[in-house]
Design brief:
It is a single-pass membrane protein. The protein is mostly helical and about 130 residues long. It is built from three helices and no strands.
């Protein structure tokens, strides 16, 4: 292991028994074992967090769009069976095309968008 043989291990245990006493030695070993266990849990959780695949912004946007479209589709599928006088409120027909798509949080500028901004700024200055 660390170059420690049986005689060295026995010597370490005897010194520990003399220094800490027979009452404290099991308690120290128990707390040392708990500390080692917690350290192993923390390192495994850390390595799992590092190795977990990251979700790209495109995937995040797609999942957000799916989540916003599902309630809209469910509302469009539910239509009243018959209209009675007590039901004065009518629901408008909602389709996924009528609901505007959410704007992305950040769009990287493209060459075309930069050119348009420069042209707009030149028009404003002129």
């Amino acid at each position: 292991m660390f170059g420690i043989g049986v005689p060295e291990l026995i010597l370490i245990l005897i010194v520990g028994l003399v220094v800490f006493g027979p009452g404290k030695l099991p308690e120290i070993a128990r707390s040392l074992g708990k500390g080692m266990r917690e350290f192993k849990k923390a390192t495994s959780a850390f390595s799992q967090a590092i190795n977990a695949p990251l979700e790209t912004p495109v995937q995040q946007q797609a999942t957000q769009q799916q989540q916003t479209q599902q309630p809209v589709q469910q509302q469009a599928a539910v239509q009243p069976a018959e209209n009675t006088a007590s039901q004065a409120v009518t629901t408008p027909d909602i389709t996924p095309e009528s609901v505007p798509a959410p704007k992305p949080v950040y769009e990287a500028p493209t060459q075309e968008s930069v050119r348009q901004q420069i042209a707009e700024q030149a028009k404003k200055d002129a």
